[in-house]
Amino acid sequence: MRFATISLLLLTLSSASSGSGENNRHEKLMDEIELAIVLPAGALPLNSYARYYTEYEGAIHGAYTIEIEERPTGYGCSKVTEDFQLKDVACPAIANLRPGNRRWVNSADFPAVGGHNCDSIQIEFNPKTKSFDYLACTDSSY
Question: How many other C-beta atoms are found inside a 10 Å radius of the C-beta of residue 104?
Fold first, then answer.
């Protein structure tokens, strides 16, 4: 019994430390991007944006926005089916991070941001080459 308890404790610690290792990796990637980035003309200072990051197909994607999404009680999402009916679906994660903060999110929770006059920015960073494959202000008409 003592061996099983110790094994379970070690397994729990190992799981916790691997999650923490992934968080450290994400923090380092966000730090690397934010140290290297040169924002587009017309952009506000970096700390003026709420910054979301995710990894998709080996690239790091970033969405920067000054907008804070608020949803009223009972807010729901729908999609139109092939037979033109509305079907309730899960809403994407809310983009409620305050400007000046950043968050690593799962790719399914990566917010779509848009605005005018560089209120939002989209980036794609290649961690292998340590370069930006895409970096631009986002127009709401995307």
Answer: 18
Give me the long-range contacts of 114-118 (CB less than 8 A, separation at least 24).
114/138, 114/139, 114/140, 114/141, 114/142, 115/65, 115/66, 115/67, 115/139, 115/140, 116/140, 117/42, 118/39, 118/40, 118/42, 118/43, 118/44
d(CA 23, CA 90): 26
- Quick: pLDDT tens for 2-61: 444 343 333 333 344 445 788 899 999 999 999 999 999 999 999 999 999 999 999 999
Strands 50-56 and 102-104: parallel
Task: Tell the residue number behind the tokens 């494959």, with chain if given.
Answer: 133
